[in-house]
Q: What sequence folds into this?
């Protein structure tokens, strides 16, 4: 077998390439020579009854033998080879969606079948990251019209799993993002489930932000549940908060998100397709969308919010979803913490009705829970707010949240990183504005979300008065090096908080 030119023995490289399968070969190996593979070539790998298309990286030293191929974690998990397994390597067939991709790059409109081909090839890893980046770029801005948005949404929905919860309403909520600390989901899920509704919430992990809902929830309970476990939790407690990547409700979207977020492209069409395909796949019937609007949020103006809202509503109608939109203040962070454990601490503080709980997080969560309860079938219009407040203040929401945590695998109390230091105001005055993006970057440089206990503790708000030398916020890190790295960035960006000096 080892003498066959297109076969190599597989080893686990131990390299995390996130969702992208990568194969590592020595530049003098027989497969590189006989098949004519070059760096970054797409390579079809077959081992036993499994196959994957991976991107080639070439090794120039002797860490790999000429008869060995190393697999990244994503490639290894896709093939799941036995010990000392050999694989067959070949050129992959051209992706069926190549004509559609080229057409979109040159500005042509695509139909639903075109998008179906593209999403199927995306989920099957038949398109390289370069090709996916070209697709994302070609769809960015206003390059997807409404019908294309609907076609893309339907295509994403068609190639993933779908959950059927049986009869009755299934509620859900989603925030379009861009606001540090806006961790309302665990509170809303607890309130809505305590009210007797089903709310199976699938959430994402952070890629370029300091925390995603799944990262924050994972500080308190396991989130990597499979579909059967998710169903068990919902049937038992009425709600859940799990990581969506493990249930594969919209697998093509999970891949596209990996490409979109580092590029930081704003595209209403892709956002709508991403959100609503997952809501429909999760079996949701009534959905609330939170759109924070502010100069450093994802949606920066009322005009942009109008456009996004219209597209969301039209696409939801096509899918048969009942959808409502709530616009919220996106000018500044929500809660005190930015980072998984710090945000988890805020969530618990609100659920426990602590006197010092962040009031903005409490009120925003009540607003969202009320709006979601109000769109439920047979709800009395305007009654949601009183019901939500009663369930929160009585402890019913806390009891339900802890029950959900136990059903998902057990509750853990969050802790905060040990190395902490304040960032001080250079001069006094009142807070005029906040740069959400740069404040979030401080939390990321401190180690969040990889270090779940790291981040930023920020209590300052627009309109507050501060004196020179008083803390703007506190940085929390797991190591002294990460703390210094974050503090250095904060020092070089002293205008994260816009301070208007008071007149003498």
A:
């Amino acid at each position: 077998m080892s003498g066959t030119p297109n076969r190599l023995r597989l080893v686990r490289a131990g390299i995390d390439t996130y969702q992208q399968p990568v194969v590592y070969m020595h530049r003098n190996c027989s497969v590189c020579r006989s098949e004519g593979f070059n760096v970054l070539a797409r390579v079809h790998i077959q081992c036993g009854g499994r196959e994957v298309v991976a991107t080639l990286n070439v090794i120039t030293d002797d860490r790999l033998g000429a008869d060995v191929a190393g697999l990244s974690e994503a490639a290894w998990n896709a093939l799941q080879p036995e010990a000392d397994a050999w694989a067959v390597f070949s050129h992959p067939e051209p992706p069926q969606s190549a004509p559609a991709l080229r057409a979109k790059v040159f500005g042509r409109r695509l139909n639903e079948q075109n998008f179906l081909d593209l999403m199927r090839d995306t989920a099957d890893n038949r398109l390289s990251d370069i090709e996916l980046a070209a697709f994302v770029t070609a769809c960015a801005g206003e390059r997807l019209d409404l019908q294309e948005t609907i076609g893309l949404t339907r295509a994403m929905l068609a190639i993933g799993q779908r959950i059927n919860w049986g009869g009755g309403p299934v509620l859900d909520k989603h925030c379009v993002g861009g606001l540090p600390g806006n961790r309302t989901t665990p509170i809303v899920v607890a309130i809505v489930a305590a009210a007797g509704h089903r709310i199976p919430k699938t959430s994402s992990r952070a890629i370029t932000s300091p925390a995603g809902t799944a990262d924050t929830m994972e500080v308190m309970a396991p989130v990597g549940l499979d579909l059967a476990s998710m169903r068990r939790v919902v049937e038992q407690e009425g709600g859940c908060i799990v990581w969506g990547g493990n249930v594969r409700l919209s697998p093509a979207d999970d891949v596209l998100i990996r490409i979109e977020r580092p590029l930081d492209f704003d595209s209403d069409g892709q956002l709508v397709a991403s959100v609503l395909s997952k809501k429909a796949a999760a079996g949701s019937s009534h959905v609330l969308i939170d759109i924070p609007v502010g100069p450093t949020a994802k949606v920066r103006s009322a005009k942009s919010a109008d456009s996004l809202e219209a597209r969301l509503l039209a696409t939801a109608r096509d899918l048969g979803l009942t959808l409502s939109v709530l616009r919220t203040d996106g000018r500044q962070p929500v809660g005190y913490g930015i980072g998984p454990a710090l945000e988890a601490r805020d969530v618990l503080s609100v659920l426990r009705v602590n006197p010092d709980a962040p009031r903005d997080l409490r009120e925003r969560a009540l607003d969202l829970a009320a709006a979601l309860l109000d769109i439920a079938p047979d709800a009395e219009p305007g009654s949601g707010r009183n019901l939500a407040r009663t369930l929160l203040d009585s402890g019913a929401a806390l009891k339900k949240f802890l029950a959900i945590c136990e059903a998902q695998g057990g509750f853990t109390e969050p802790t905060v990183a040990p190395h902490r230091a304040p960032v001080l105001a250079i001069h006094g005055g009142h807070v005029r504005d906040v740069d959400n993006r740069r404040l979030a970057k401080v939390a990321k440089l401190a180690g969040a979300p990889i270090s779940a206990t790291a981040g930023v503790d920020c209590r300052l708000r627009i309109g507050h008065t501060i004196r020179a030398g008083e803390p703007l916020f506190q940085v929390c890190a797991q190591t002294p090096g990460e703390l210094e790295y974050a503090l250095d960035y904060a020092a070089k960006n002293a205008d994260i908080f816009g301070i208007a000096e008071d007149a003498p």
Q: What stands out?
A: The chain has a mean pLDDT of 93. The two ends are 85 Å apart (CA to CA). The longest helix spans residues 302-319. The chain has four domains: 7-90, 98-158, 171-408, 419-500.
